[in-house]
Each structure stands twice: as structure tokens, then as C-alpha cells.
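User: Predict the complex.
Assistant: Input components as received:
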Amino acid sequence: MTAGGEAEAGRLIVGAGAGAGPLFELPPELAIDTDVATRVMVGFIRNQLRQAGFSRGLLGLSGGIDSALVAFLVAQAIGPESMLCVLMPYRTSSPESVEHARLVVDQLGCASDLVDISQIVDGYFGRDGELAAGGAAARDAAPLRRGNFMARARMCVLYDRSVLWGGLVAGTGNKTESLIGYSTLFGDSACAFNPIGDLYKSQVRQVAAAIGVPEQIIRKAPSADLWPGQTDEAEAGFSYPELDRLLFWMIDKRRTDEELEAMGFPMAAVGRVKRLVAVSEFKRQVPPVAKLGPRTTGVDYLYPRRRPGSAR
Amino acid sequence: MQPLRIALAQLAPRLGVLDDNLARHREVLAAARSGGAGLVVFPELGLTGYQLQDLAAEVAMRADDPRLASLAADAAGMSAIVSFVEEAADHRLFISAALLEDGEVRFVHRKLFLPTYGLFDERRFFAAGDRLRATDSRLGVKLGIAVCEDFWHLAVPETLALDGAQILINVSSSPGRDLAAIHEVGLGTAASWRTLMRTYAQLTTSFVVFCNRVGMDETISFWGGSEVIAPSGEAVFTAPLFDEGLHFVDIELGDVRRERIGLPLLRDERPELHLRELRRILAERTEMATDEASEAPDRAKAER
């Protein structure tokens, strides 16, 4: 572990320095060796690009910790000159998001591109109650539908820019949000590869602190920023350290409900998280194909994603 | 006795690119020769890469494949262990490790234990070997060759040592996982392997040579950390994690004699006891315990 920490009432509070207050809370069982983790993720990024015949990468940089960490990792893997960060705010996005994204771009010295997605999104839903391409059914859409649309609009922009940049899209989703399904299918979860998808949010924070992600990005409350004032933790009803601990024991360590209860997890929380995980299984898998022929992709036609001849 | 120089080829094979991997093996053999190596060890499936899935059949070679013979010619004057997908005459595919000596394939070990759990799916694509033997070598001592998961079964190092091996060699493609700050070197896999190898070296009073690959196949990263452990259980050499490299390690084969004289564990092994009890256990497992009476006439008589 690279970040300095002290155990306090069974929890590890990782501090940035005197007087600054704790940087984040890290459940001790989730502590990883950040050097080894970085080494593996950086190697993974290089390997994914090389196997596909690419030397450049790009990602959507939101101003949050997940994409900031991926930007640092990609920069370390291939050099900042080979990376493009695409900033894609909507008109109601927090101005802080773009500011924080710029901090990362400036610190890394990589190329960046700003695409305001407001016209794309408003072109479908309309603005201020006016009718647009989506008609009345879109005009009256709830925030969740709008949020999903925004995530998918960003995916479209990112994949279009990937052609221009000649690079592969790096994913920025973490393990916590993947497991509870807190992502938009074919939206923010769309990518060519994902270096941080097996890190819980608490571990993302740990590696982010070690690798030099700006402190204000690590400190702020995580948010999908799909509507003003939204925060992940308020929406989920859990704090990340609590949720990460529960998922770790439930999934990685295969503890039963009874064992989890004995460990002090409230049964209501266990039940709720189990449902979230089960309900979102579809988001983590490739869409199923009806088995008809002798060899079916994903069933009995099983090849490595990249093999001789598959580089572009 | 002249020290034996071992070259550990901690390589990152390219998945499914047989020609590139063959070329890399040739380069390494040349480097090992100029470094004065007597034994060169390559990792599991170093010629093909690990995560092959349906590619396995496409990169498979017969043990008498001219490409292996040519590699053996390149290894002349040394002992080299290389690993590949072996296709048997009946078209079963094995994960094999071959001992190349004097320009030919001298011995082939077929992986016995195929992990098919967790992230592993080997039994789907491969057949399991069914012979476990120490092999003679030009080094003047017998070698006990095993592949990765083979070493997660106690009987393997024990049998090889009882069969006369003085150097136990494990070639691996061990995926690094179980990342946690509590583990030695931050990696659960590495901590477990290190425990195993020291224990086997000590209990069999043999050298243990471990060659693990590095690099990545798809989503999994291989952690390297190749080692040579002395018969006392102490590490003689530990390679860095994750870095590709050719590492030379000198060992004194006389250490085996010294250890076995001072600590005659192998002399005191009771294979006949082990065999008898194994027969009983097997009989009981298959509910054929009554047959066992004929194996132990004394007890059968006493009970009458």
C-alpha cells in the first residue's frame, strides 16, 4: 500500500496530510498493493492495444475519479501524447465536472476535445417543453430516461472520435457499479476494454491517491452528474465503503446470508444488494444468441478475443 | 562437482503465434548457451500461449514434429524443457512439457491435473496425462518434470522424488490474482506458490525449479517470480514479478546429497504403507471394502 493510513475502529482512514481531514475511508479487507495493481492494469492496457494493432487510446473524461484514474493509467501505459480525453458536458452538468476534467488534462499534458452534447440530447427530448425529434413521449421523459440517453449520446460521440483519433476506447466503470448495475447499458459501460472493472470504488480511490489523481477529485462525492445535485450514494442508499465491504464478502469471499448477518451486515441491506446484483446480470453479459447451428459464438465457438490475424 | 547453471526463461509468449514463439525460444537457447547454461527451462505453453480455447487444436504439434526436433537441435549440448500443445496419435490434446537433449525429444510429460474451476477451463480443451515418472538426463541426475497445477497435488512431488528425481521442475502459466495488501508481494497467488515450493523442496530434499511466464493473455496477467529452491527449502534465486527476463542461477548438485544425508526424510518415506492405505481408501470409496480382505490376510485371519 502506497498511501499512508491508520486503523481506526476497524476502518482505515487514509489521510492526505495534517489538517486536511481524511481523504477517503478504506475498509481494511479491501486494501490492495497499489503498485502491483497499477502494474497489472498498465500492462493490460498496453496488451489490449497491441493485440488489436493500435497504439492510441481515448476515453470520456467526466471530471470524476473513475475516468480520472483511467486517464492516468492510459497515460502511464502509452504516454500522454497517444491519449485523447473527450469532455462531453450537457448544459445542466455541474461546471465543476469540466473544471476537474481539465485539471487531469493539464496535469497529464494529453490531447483533449470538448463536445457539448446538449444539442444532441435536446434534439430528441426538446428544451423547455418544446416538441423535438422524440415527440411528446420524449418531451415528458423522466430524468432517468434522459440520463440514459445522455450516457448513450456520449458513447456515440466517443466511438465517432475514436475513428478520428485512431484509437481504442478505454472503459471507466468500476466493479461496484458494475455489480449493482449502476451503469447504462451501451452507454457509459461501452468500451473496447476496461482496466478498472475489477476494482471496487474504495480500491479505485486507493489507486487514484497513489497514482496522483488531484485531491479534489478524490474528495468529492461521486456522482453520475445526470441531473443537478445527484450523488451515487444518495441514490443507492449506501456509502461506498459499506457497499464495497458487503459486495466483497458476498461475492469475492462467498459468504452466505447467515454469515453476513453474523458479521454485522443488516439483513435488509444484504437482501437489497443481492437483488440489485441479480437484476443487473444482463448488463454484465454479452446478449444471448439462440442456439441453432453446430457452433455458436460464446457457446461452443470459443476463441480468444484477439488471436493471430485479428489485429487491424 | 561442477556447479549446474540453470537458465530460467521467464518469457511472455504471444498467444497462438507459434512461429514467433519458436523464434523467441531459439534466441533464448542461444543466449543461454553463451551464458554457459546446462539446463534451460521455459514456462508452460511457452510455445503457444495459455488462454488458447479453440485455438489449441490449431497450434497443436505431435511430439515428433520437425519444429520440435529443430528446437532440440538448437538446444544440443544442454538440457532444455519446453512446453507446447501436444496432439497424440489418437488426436487427444495435452499440455505437455518436453525434455530436449542431444538434439532430440528425450522425454515428454503430459500435464496430469487440469484445473477446471474459477478462471480455469482446461478440461474442456485438453486431455489429462496419466504417467508420472522421473526421467534420466544428461545432467547425471534424474529430473522430475511437472506442469503448473500438477504441483497443487502432494502426490506429484512425492512420487517424482521417490522415483529418483533430484531436481523437481515445475513449468507454469500461473495467472496473478487475489490482489491484497496483506499478501507477501501483494499477490495471493505468489504467496501460495512460494509456500508450496519451499515445502516440497524441504520435504523431498530436492532442488525445486519453478519457471512461470509473464505477460498477458486476454484479461489475465501472469506474474513470473520464477524461483530456484535448495533442498533445504531456502530460496537460491527469485526472479522479479511481471518482468520478462532470462535468469542464470548456479546450483551445487552436491547439496542434494548433503541434505539427504543430514536429513534422511526420503530414506524414511514409507511408500508401501502409503500404497496399502491408498488401496484401502480406494476400496472404501468405491464400496468394495470386502475385496480389501485379500490384500491384508493377517488382519483377515485375526478377525476370524
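Chain A touches chain B through 22 residues (CB under 8 Å).
Let me know if you want any component modeled separately.
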